[in-house]
């Protein structure tokens, strides 16, 4: 499976009273990782939305392992964990500056028509994405 990597600088506003990253901010960073993965595969989520297609989250699992703190740089690894042509499961790992695992997560998505929220078959609507996702799921680097 192909893996995309990106870094995020932890900002003060992203931390809680304990001085660690507030748990919901990791979800925002997962989106950053997902968007970067899509770009690394040669596509644009914004362009897909312009064509009237959205990709909502249908399920989410998150295991918090080690906190990240203000001023640290988090490294996000994102990959296509599963792909069926209709449903995509993205995998995520986030690491501390010392390379320790801070978070492990998966998010499931389907593509739907913006006006009706009716699911679509990615294979039919976006054959290039379909081929790239199949390849990415099979060839994680």
Automatic annotation (TrEMBL):
Alphabetized SUPFAM superfamilies for the sequence: Thioesterase/thiol ester dehydrase-isomerase
UniProt-listed Enzyme Commission number(s): 3.1.2.-
Translocase keyword on record: no
GO MF term list: fatty acyl-CoA hydrolase activity
Signal peptide start and end residues: none
Gene3D superfamilies, alphabetized: Hotdog Thioesterase
Keyword Transcription in annotation: no
UniProt keywords, alphabetically: Hydrolase
Matching PROSITE patterns: 4HBCOA_THIOESTERASE
Enzyme class: hydrolase
Origin: domain of life: Bacteria
Similarity comment: Belongs to the 4-hydroxybenzoyl-CoA thioesterase family.
Name of the protein: YbgC/FadM family acyl-CoA thioesterase
Organism whose genome encodes this protein: Metabacillus mangrovi
